[in-house]
């Protein structure tokens, strides 16, 4: 049909046949393949699970010609020893171990015994040393004229069973202290009265003078003159020989005037002898000496053998 220009009317042109929309076939194919693949995987998993539960060898199913693996035999197997021989060897090993254990136990017991003896010896020596120190301290207190204090209790504890008389003598001497200085000072003060007998009777004076007219003595013998005797008594006191000083004073003409001095000097000498006895007991006493806790010191003194 032609269209004329300028003509307001238009005849309809012939139309082409309309195209019908065809459905897309690509998406349906992919869905089908996915379902098939999923079914295949599920089947494989199910077969494997059944084979695992039933213990079927999958390799054998896949390759029937394959031989199953067999356990390889050991390279070398030592023949078992007879039971009696094994038992004897076990008994021998146990006996050997038992013997070694007994030896070690015996050595350990000997060592413990030695340590015990050493500990006892150390404790005994310590007890003796402490007792000796107590005796030394008591001697210093007596020499200084000081009270004993706690030393009196220590003397009773350590030496009360071994030397009770000596302990009491020292304690009594400390209650009425006498020192060397006091004895020397009193002796010097009594010197003139001791050299000259003021209260001597006439007959006694005559006898003493007659006995002094003829004196026979060795040249090395000490002089019997009163002045010399008094001087020797002083030296004996200062050197600690109290008994010798007492003997010299007793031989003086005025010895009757020195009664109190002689008594004090004898008490001081007795305390010194008692202290000597306590010191010897601390070294050599083997039965009744006690330590600080009151137990007997059973360890012998290291100087007992000498």
Average pLDDT level = 75
Q: List SSEs in N-to-C order.
A: HHHHHHHHHHH
**Number of helix segments?**
11
Q: Which runs of at least 5 residues are low in confidence (pLDDT < 50)? A: 1-23, 71-81
The end-to-end distance, rounded to whole angstroms, is 168 Å
| Cα Rg | 64 Å
What percentage of amino acids are in beta strands?
A: under 5%
Silhouette: rod-shaped
Largest pleated sheet: none
Helix content: 55-70%
Output the structural class: mainly alpha
Number of strands: 0
Short structural summary:
The chain has a domain at 114-284. Helices cover 62% and strands 0% of the residues.
What would you say this structure looks like, in words?
- The chain has 306 residues and is mainly α.
- The chain has a domain at 114-284.
- The protein has helices spanning 26-54, 58-62, 83-144, 150-159, 164-175, 180-189, 191-195, 202-211, 226-238, 242-250, 259-284.
- Helix 3 (83-144) packs across helix 4 (150-159) and helix 5 (164-175) packs across helix 11.
- The longest helix is centred in the middle third of the chain and has 62 residues, at 83-144.
- Mean pLDDT is 75; it is low at 1-23 and 71-81.
Features:
306 residues, single chain, mainly alpha, 62% helix
Topology, please?
Blueprint: H1 26-54, H2 58-62, H3 83-144, H4 150-159, H5 164-175, H6 180-189, H7 191-195, H8 202-211, H9 226-238, H10 242-250, H11 259-284
Helix pairs in contact: 3-4, 3-11, 4-5, 5-11, 6-9, 6-11, 9-10, 10-11
